[in-house]
Amino acid sequence: MSDSETIATAGDPLDLTLSDAEVEQRRTHLVEFIQTQTAAAGVDQTVLGISGGVDSGLVTGLAAEALGPENVHGLIMPSTMNDEKTMSDAERVAQRFEVPYDVIEIEPIVEAFLDAYPEAQDNRMAAGNLRVRTRAVLNYLVANTEDALVLGTGNRTEALIGYFTKYGDGAVDCHPIANLYKQQVRQLARAVGVPESVASRTPTAGMWVGQTDEEELGIEYDTLDSILALHVEGGVPASATAREIGVEANVVERVRALYEGSTHKRRVPPGPEEPY
Ligand SMILES: Nc1ncnc2c1ncn2[C@@H]1O[C@H](COP(=O)(O)OP(=O)(O)OC[C@H]2O[C@@H]([n+]3cccc(C(=O)O)c3)[C@H](O)[C@@H]2O)[C@@H](O)[C@H]1O
Ligand SMILES: Nc1ncnc2c1ncn2[C@@H]1O[C@H](COP(=O)(O)OP(=O)(O)OP(=O)(O)O)[C@@H](O)[C@H]1O
Ligand SMILES: [Mg+2]
C-alpha cells in the first residue's frame, strides 16, 4: 500500500492476550520445545539472528533459558537499512540474556550479489529479500561450523499470511514461537525479560529504510490477529467476522487472500506425482 492509504484498524478487536498462568504455561512449553528439538538432533548449540525486534528478542530469551546462554550463538547482522538504535538494542538483547554474539555487517556481501546481477539493484523487494537471505546463509554457515540448529523467529501471524522471505527468515530448523500471535509474542517477551524498548518496538522487516509491517500490509497487527483467529483459523464467515470486530468486509477478504496466496510458503516444494 502507499503511505497515504490508511491502516485498517478494527473498532473492537478480539482479545487474544493470555492470562498470567497461560503465559507461564507457554513459556515452559516453548523452553521444553527447544530442549526437545536440540536433543532430537543430537546437538547442544543453536544460532539465531538478533535484530532488535521483539520476535528474535523472545526466542533469544527462551533459548538461553532452555539451553544455557553459552549454547546460543547470536548473530547481529546490520545492513544499511537498519538504524543504529535498533542494532544497539539487538546487542542489549544478547547482553541481557548473556548470549555470546558476533556482529557481521552484511552490506559488502549484498553488494557482491548486486554487482553480479545489477538488474535487482533498484528493485527494493528483491534487494530486501536478498538481505534477508544473506542472513540465512550466515546462520547456516555458523550452524554447519558449530554443529548447531538454526532457531526461527517466525510467529503465527507471519506464517499464516506468508509475511516472511521464502528461504530467508523462513529458512530455519525449528519455529519455537510459531503458535503465538503477534500480540502474544509481546506478552511473552515481557515475561522473559526482553528489554522494554525491544518489546514495544514497531515491527519492521528492515528490508528498506522506514519499512514497517503494518504500513506495508495496510493493517494493524491486532486487527490482523483477530481476523486470522476468527475467520481464517476459526471458520467464522467473513461477513460475521467483519461485523464482530468492526472492519469493512474487504479487510477480511484481503487477509484471506494473503493466507491463500502464501500456501506455497508453508509447504515443502512439490514434485510430480509418482509413478511417472
Ligand atoms: N504460487 C506459488 N507457488 C510456488 N512458488 C511461488 C508461488 N508464488 C510465488 N512463488 C515464489 O515465491 C517467491 C516470492 O516469495 P518471497 O521471495 O518470499 O518474496 P515476497 O513474498 O514477494 O516478499 C517477502 C515479503 O515478506 C515480508 N518479510 C520478509 C522478511 C521478513 C519479514 C519480517 O516480518 O520481518 C517480512 C516482506 O516485507 C515482503 O512483504 C517468488 O519469486 C517465487 O519464487
Ligand atoms: N539486522 C539483523 N540482524 C540479525 N538478524 C536479523 C536482522 N534483521 C532481521 N533479522 C532476523 O530475521 C528475523 C525476522 O525478522 P522480523 O522482523 O520478523 O523479526 P523481529 O525483528 O525479531 O521482530 P519484529 O517483527 O517485531 O520486527 C529476526 O527475528 C531475526 O532473526
Ligand atoms: Mg524486525
From TrEMBL:
UniProt keywords, alphabetically: ATP-binding, Ligase, Magnesium, Metal-binding, NAD, Nucleotide-binding
Catalytic activity: deamido-NAD(+) + NH4(+) + ATP = AMP + diphosphate + NAD(+) + H(+)
Stated name of the protein: NH(3)-dependent NAD(+) synthetase
Binding positions (deamido-NAD(+)): R133, K166, D173, H264, K265
Family in the record: Belongs to the NAD synthetase family.
Protein's GO biological process: NAD+ biosynthetic process
Organism annotation: Halapricum salinum
Domain NAD/GMP synthase span(s) in chain numbering: 29-269
Enzyme Commission number, as recorded: 6.3.1.5
Residues the entry annotates as binding Mg(2+): D55, E158
MF-aspect GO terms: ATP binding; glutaminase activity; metal ion binding; NAD+ synthase (glutamine-hydrolyzing) activity; NAD+ synthase activity
GO cellular component assignments: cytoplasm
Sites where the protein binds ATP: G49, I50, S51, G52, G53, V54, D55, S56, T153, K182, T204
NCBIfam families membership: nadE (TIGR00552), PRK13980.1 (NF010587)
Pfam families tied to this protein: NAD_synthase
Domain of life: Archaea
Gene: nadE
